[in-house]
């Protein structure tokens, strides 16, 4: 779709917005044509979500105009925007798990007959709606809580369509999806396009942006850097626009032959409810990547090693000594650290200061033996070493960007001098610039002698960072790949359609 | 690259931050002015000192309640615990001065034990603290009646009562300084030290996000249980002062739990935990007492106290809830 069609569905002109005097959007122009997928990319804090919230009516812009199908609109709330035909699919779904698909789709505007909800009509219409977007396999009377993430997303989309949405906003729609589900989403997006629905597509994953969109708008620091036709640009160029600098090499150098030390962590035939027959060796100085689909047991592995949901069978030895990892405390005392994938839910203490967050583990584990002042000083040094950007170490951590929060979490663990570091999706939801900073840190830790295990759904990251890769499937290790493996190798092992690679 | 430090502003103390003590200090100042207008001699050292001494028990309870609330729990049992302590003390001492100190120690142990039980039931048996401590409240009320056959027995010794009613006389400038005030100052200093310790910081973190705390090696159940024990200890000290000041009755501690919770909320501590300071909580209690004094001066019926408390809780929570969702 190289030429923008004549009558845009949505037109934004000169949108500006400030919070408490901080300008988060400044003069942003953007338009979406019917049937167009318009991607919006930018680092965290570039203003993407604020812009989407303005379009979906959650925020009122300070300046600028929003036009829908040529008509200027001033939405007074999300309900207003919904009635005007704008739907938004959030990263986190807004569904009632105990209700059926149909009840969710028609929540708040159920078809009524003689004053009562007409269940049959509701099921009927939902079925037709789902069929119209090619989702015939999804029963309208299924309980939403039983559906997988991808299907729940379909329900969200159907919900928007039931309100006659002409414009759909998708905010990181693939963040929660496994790789094979992403394909399904692609199909769905194309069918929505065919129906003439305009899509605003916000994503960190450039692959998707290139696969799906017709045009791309790059935001940076609240301004629009450029809008380009997808066909005329490259990922490198896009990244340059986003960060304003060349990212010559994405990933730090791997460990050389001399860098990898002795075996630090050995897992022998270990298992629990989610894991079976895990045999694993982790060496000092290496980064061992763990690939696999969502739910294949990658996080369960890290959580077992950290004692959150411990192994119930098998043995673990650390530096040759057998250890029992019953709880996070015992794992921490053994020298293991775990950076969770759910940063907001279990990685940070949102309303406490940067310093308190960084000190949390030290305070919990070691009574200040070497003096509290010295300990605080050391944590301050660590915060500086990982290059946290904050207004001060007394700033509440929730005001920091995802990348900076992650660095604080990392500093918390580094204060314990861990010998083994477990990273679960260390760069999820983190902008491009901060991502490479985290990558550098991970590599630096390995080079300094730590044994690193890194789970990642981001294949380029997994391939770019790891010295070795193990791929998991159904709670087992499906196989191991050397550095230099390809995305296809990983995916093949993860979905299990090739003979397992010999170790 | 270094930490981008917007070096600390010189006006740091004045900076308004959520959970800070500035709002409560403002309210306190306004009330002081109002009191000063209506009843200028209230602000003279003698009456001010005795007011502070009278307010000491509720301020202590607010400090104890702070530890429980800031880690995300509630303690509704403190009022009946105070009653139980006073009644128990009277019966055990039975007007025998020699028993004073052993009984004081016993009361502290009793308070700590009730807190321990509250804490363990809440954290280990996963009963919501609202229910746990409500149950404890009822159990204590019934147990005290049972144990004393319906009317308080015995009596407190003069040694015991002096904490609540005596004062250091002839202090320059201030005149009489009640023992209760000295006890309060000592406990307040301890409480402030405690909130600045590793335990205090960890406690707030537990209230803010227990999952993160657990995964960072904090023994969340232990931390919360200690908070309940602190609240029980505060109740014991408050009971000693109150017993001395107003004597033995089944009403000694009635309604104090709600007073303490109101005070803590008024002092800017978030219900549900994670935010607020112990100084704010104690200032909240002082403000509440001052408000009641003011109501008294203006001839408002004392019967309105609980209505006022209820209104304050609702208002304070509403204000903080709307403010925190304003973004």
TrEMBL record, chain A:
Repeat recorded as keyword: yes
Entry keyword Nucleotide-binding: yes
GO CC annotation: plasma membrane
Membrane topology: Peripheral membrane protein
Alphabetically ordered keywords of this record: ATP-binding, Cell membrane, Membrane, Nucleotide-binding, Repeat, Translocase, Transport
Record-given protein name: Sugar ABC transporter ATP-binding protein
UniProt cross-references to SUPFAM superfamilies, sorted A to Z: P-loop containing nucleoside triphosphate hydrolases
A molecular function GO annotation: ATP binding
Compartments where found: Cell membrane
Residue ranges constituting the ABC transporter domain according to the UniProt record: 10-246, 260-499
Pfam families named in the record: ABC_tran (PF00005)
UniProt-listed InterPro entries: AAA+_ATPase, ABC_carbohydrate_import_ATPase, ABC_transporter-like_ATP-bd, ABC_transporter-like_CS, P-loop_NTPase
Automatic annotation (TrEMBL), chain B:
CDD domains reported for this sequence: TM_PBP1_transp_AraH_like (cd06579)
Subcellular compartments: Cell membrane
Organism listed in the record: Micromonospora carbonacea
Record-level GO cellular component terms: plasma membrane
The keyword Transmembrane is annotated on this UniProt entry: yes
Protein name stated in the entry: Autoinducer 2 import system permease protein LsrD
GO molecular function: transmembrane transporter activity
Membrane-related topology note: Multi-pass membrane protein
Keyword terms: Cell inner membrane, Cell membrane, Membrane, Transmembrane, Transmembrane helix, Transport
Annotated TM spans: 21-39, 51-69, 76-93, 99-120, 127-147, 177-194, 226-246, 252-271, 278-298, 304-322
């Amino acid at each position: 779709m190289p030429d923008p069609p004549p009558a845009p569905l949505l037109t934004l002109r000169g949108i500006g917005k400030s919070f408490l005097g901080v300008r988060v959007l400044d003069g942003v122009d953007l338009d979406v044509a019917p049937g167009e997928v318009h991607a919006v990319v930018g680092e965290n804090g570039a203003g993407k979500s604020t812009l989407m919230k303005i379009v979906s009516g959650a925020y009122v812009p300070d300046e600028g105009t929003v036009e829908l199908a040529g008509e200027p609109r001033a939405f007074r709330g999300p309900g207003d925007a919904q009635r005007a035909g704008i739907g938004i699919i959030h990263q986190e779904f807004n569904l009632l798990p105990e209700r059926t698909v149909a009840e969710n789709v028609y929540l708040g505007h159920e078809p009524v007959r003689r004053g009562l909800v007409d269940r049959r009509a509701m099921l009927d219409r939902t079925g037709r709606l789902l069929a119209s977007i090619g989702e015939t396999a999804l029963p309208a009377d299924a309980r939403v809580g039983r559906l997988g993430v991808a299907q729940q997303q379909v329900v969200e989309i159907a919900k928007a369509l039931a309100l006659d949405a002409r414009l759909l906003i998708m905010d990181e729609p693939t963040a929660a999806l496994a790789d094979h589900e992403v394909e399904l989403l692609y199909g769905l997006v194309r069918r929505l396009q065919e129906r003439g629905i305009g899509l605003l597509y916000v994503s960190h994953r450039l692959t998707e942006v290139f696969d799906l969109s017709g045009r791309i708008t790059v935001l940076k620091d609240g301004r629009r850097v450029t809008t380009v036709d997808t066909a005329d640009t490259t990922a490198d160029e896009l990244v340059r626009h986003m960060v304003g600098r060349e990212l010559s090499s994405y990933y730090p150098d791997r460990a050389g032959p001399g860098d990898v030390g002795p075996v630090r962590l050995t897992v022998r035939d270990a298992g629990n409810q989610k894991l079976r027959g895990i045999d694993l060796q982790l060496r000092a100085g290496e980064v061992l990547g763990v690939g696999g689909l969502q739910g294949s047991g990658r996080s369960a592995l890290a959580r077992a090693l950290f004692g959150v949901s411990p192994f119930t069978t098998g043995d673990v030895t650390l530096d040759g000594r057998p250890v029992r990892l019953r709880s996070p405390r015992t794992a921490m005392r053994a020298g293991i650290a775990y950076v969770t994938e759910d940063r907001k839910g279990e990685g940070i203490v949102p309303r406490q200061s940067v310093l308190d967050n960084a000190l949390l583990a030290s305070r919990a584990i070691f009574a200040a033996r070497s003096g509290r002042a010295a300990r605080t000083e050391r944590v301050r040094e660590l915060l500086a070493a990982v290059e946290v950007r904050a207004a001060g170490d007394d700033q509440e951590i929730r005001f920091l960007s995802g990348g900076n929060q992650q660095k604080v979490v990392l500093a918390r663990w580094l204060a314990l001098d861990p010998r083994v570091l477990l990273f679960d999706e260390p760069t999820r939801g983190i902008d491009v610039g901060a991502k490479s900073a985290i990558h550098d840190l991970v590599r630096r830790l390995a080079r300094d002698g730590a044994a690193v295990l890194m789970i990642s759904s981001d294949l380029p990251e997994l391939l770019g960072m790891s010295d070795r890769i193990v791929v998991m499937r159904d709670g087992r290790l499906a196989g191991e790949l050397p550095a230099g493996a390809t995305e296809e190798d990983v995916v093949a092992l993860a979905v299990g359609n090739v003979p397992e690679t010999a170790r | 690259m270094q930490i981008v430090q917007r070096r600390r502003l010189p006006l740091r103390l004045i900076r308004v931050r959520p959970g800070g003590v500035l709002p409560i200090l403002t309210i306190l100042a306004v009330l002081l002015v109002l009191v000063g207008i209506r009843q200028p001699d209230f602000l003279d050292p003698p009456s001010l000192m005795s007011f502070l001494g009278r307010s000491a028990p509720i301020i202590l309870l607010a400090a104890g309640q702070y530890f429980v609330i800031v880690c995300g729990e509630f303690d509704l049992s403190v009022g009946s615990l105070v009653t139980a302590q006073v009644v128990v003390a009277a019966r055990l001492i039975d007007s025998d001065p020699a028993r004073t100190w052993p009984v004081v120690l016993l009361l502290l142990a009793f308070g700590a034990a009730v807190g321990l039980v509250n804490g363990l039931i809440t954290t280990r048996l996963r009963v919501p603290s609202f229910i746990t401590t409500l149950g404890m409240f009822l159990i204590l009320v019934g147990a005290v009646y049972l144990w004393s056959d319906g009317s308080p027995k015995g009596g407190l010794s003069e040694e015991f009562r002096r904490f609540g009613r005596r004062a250091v006389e002839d202090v320059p400038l201030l005149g009489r300084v009640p023992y209760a005030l000295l006890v309060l100052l000592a406990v307040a200093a301890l409480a402030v030290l405690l909130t600045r310790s590793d335990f205090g910081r960890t406690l707030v973190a537990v209230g803010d996000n227990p999952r993160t705390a657990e995964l960072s090696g904090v023994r969340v159940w232990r931390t919360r249980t200690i908070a309940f024990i602190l609240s029980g200890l505060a109740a014991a000290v408050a009971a000693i002062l109150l017993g001395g000041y107003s004597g033995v009755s089944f009403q000694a501690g009635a309604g104090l739990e709600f007073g303490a919770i109101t005070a803590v909320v008024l002092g800017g501590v978030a219900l549900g935990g994670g935010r607020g300071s112990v100084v704010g909580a104690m200032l909240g209690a002082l403000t509440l007492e001052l408000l009641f004094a003011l109501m008294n001066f203006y001839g408002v019926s004392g019967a309105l106290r609980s209505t006022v408390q209820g209104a304050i809780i609702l208002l304070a929570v509403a204000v903080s809830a709307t403010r925190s969702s304003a973004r």
